[in-house]
Amino acid sequence: MVIMNTKLKPIVHRIEDNIIALQAFQDKLENQSSEKEKMILLDYPTVYIHNWKNSDDYEVYIGESGNVIQRTKQHYAKSGNVSEWQNQLTRKPASLYIIGHEHFNKSLTLDIENRLMLYMMSTDHVKKIHNKNSNLQNRYYTDDEMNEIFRLIWEKLRKTDSALFPKESAIKDSALFKASPLHKLTQEQENVKELIIEKVFTALKNKERGQLIFIDGEAGTGKTVLNSSTFYEIYLRAENLKKNDLQCCLMVNHDEQITVYQQIAEKLGLKDHYGEVVCKPTTFINHHSMDEPIDVAFIDEAHLLLTQGKQSYRGENQLEDIINRARVTVVMFDENQILTTEQYWEAKTLEYYRKFAKHKGNYFELKNQMRMAASKETIAWIDNFTKAKKVSEIPVDETGYEIQIFDLPAELEAAIKKKAREEDCELSRMIATYDWEYNQKPSKRKRLQKYWEVLIGDWHKPWNRELEKELGRREKKKIKTLSWAEQPQTINEVGSTFTIQGFDLNYAGVILGPSVKYRNGEIIFDPDESFNIKATRNRTLSDGTRKKFGEVLIQHEVRVLMTRGVNGLYIYACDEELRKALKEAVSH
Asked: How far apart are CA 153 and CA 155, in angstroms?
């Protein structure tokens, strides 16, 4: 193991981004700097950041080089093919950061470059990253120094511009960061990604169509990152192969997540070059015909696809309609996150698609839990609660994951707000089962309160999206691209599955409403206590019969809520018997 000397600090210089300032910087290094600094910045590999403002936001280009002076002069040159960012760079006032370190080598600088791309793409004030390829590295001699060196670099960069380089905790909590295609994948994810890419380009070469790649994975197994990474990589490889006519679309049937993917496409320049490449399934189906299939369709949260018609969708099965409009369709699926009757999959239909993918060698399962920083025992406890309907003894988690049970909702609220004030836990929120009335659309019926609220005795809090109505125009503009949990006013709201599904929290304060009971040693999910009409109404099956699936859909709802917390799960149960069972389950 390499032991890092913490006295070795990174060298960070910020200069004006033009040839005159660069030449002055080179002269100063050669004539006034120490021999050591001159060697680190002129002879060692370095990392650099070009950045300039476009309106109120930044655009950036990040790179690494063994000769930063020569490389930067090449960027200023306007001979040959000049990229879009080089044209902008020479027209706008810009800054250049040059970063060096005594332990930099080629692999380490590539990893620093990649991490900077990942962070800056996830920054609110960065409008666009002009890099294309990322060069993620495997193991190398000094790789165990990378995290600490990067932390010190980011610390220095923050002192120069806190808008361009915000707090690390704020970046890591952002929905953009968590869905970014620039993450380093696990070996499990990497294997599936390479197979998907191989299948796509084989289908394009052979002019095939109707291919289905089916990936099963429970909450927190990394489906979204695999989806976005593969989607982006296919575009990069198509550009390298000069396939500029590639038609690739990413879709998800979730308002919050669609916004995240649209931001990613815009920040990475996909929207500029290929147009609208992110949309909802119904939009895709309505704008593409079976006669002219696109090359590849990616579907995140495919369990949210509709399996029956509604007002905006007149078909019978969105997945089938998408498969008919693409050469290759890639789906990320979790049966335990189906929440409404219109998304319900009959067993024989779902098994048909799984078998169809398996027959072609295109079926995969993601099994490694990546969201929750919890032990196997803790994850097993949540599985036991949400799947087996049992309250077992709550384990003491050696990893530090925290499960707490509360006697009162006010105590739960106070604990979550206390966590949200801690630097690395700002993304802590209350969420609840849909057991209190809520109508997002304007209603003729008068409410008893100012807001649609979660009411428990004398305690009450507005449902999600209620406090947003009170914000001014400037505040609404600030939160426009943020997910529900990232918006500051939502610390005083209670979220639902419709705003939190697909997203992470640091600590999840889960209110289990009256629909979740405990009787005779078993958890009961009671549709009669739910206000989620989409889960409790009848569903017409393929044979014409009508059936209710409220119990299983509420069970899924509870699982979604209880798997949101990365670092902890706080619970208040409205049902007295359930609350008592949970209190008795706490390890002493």
From this structure: 5
In order, the DSSP letters of 435-488 are -S----S--SSPPSSSS-EEEETTEEEEBTTSGGGGS-HHHHHHHTTS-GGGSG
The per-residue pLDDT for 79 is 56
Q: Is the pLDDT of residue 331 over 50?
A: yes
The model's confidence at residue 588, banded by pLDDT at 50, 70 and 90, is low
User: Domain residue spans in the chain?
Assistant: 11-166, 187-366, 376-585
Q: What is residue 78's predicted lDDT score, i.e. its pLDDT?
A: 65
CATH numeric code, 187-366 = 3.40.50.300
Cα–Cα separations (whole angstroms), residue 423 to 172, 480, 484: 12, 23, 19
What are the phi and psi torsion angles at 83 (to 5°)? -75, 165
The predicted-structure confidence for 199-238, as pLDDT tens digits, reads as follows: 899 988 999 999 999 999 999 999 999 999 999 999 999 9
Nearest one of 33, 37, 28 to 100, comparing CA atoms: 37
Establish whether domains 11-166 and 187-366 are of one fold. no
What single letter denotes the amino acid at residue 244?
N
Q: Where are the beta strands (DSSP E) in 243-388?
A: 248-251, 278-279, 294-299, 326-333, 363-366
Residue identified by tokens 């599985």 is 383
**Tens digits of residue pLDDT in 549-563:** 999 999 999 999 999
Q: Which CATH class is domain 11-166?
A: alpha beta
What tokens were used for 443? 């209603």
CB atoms within 10 A of CB 147: 12
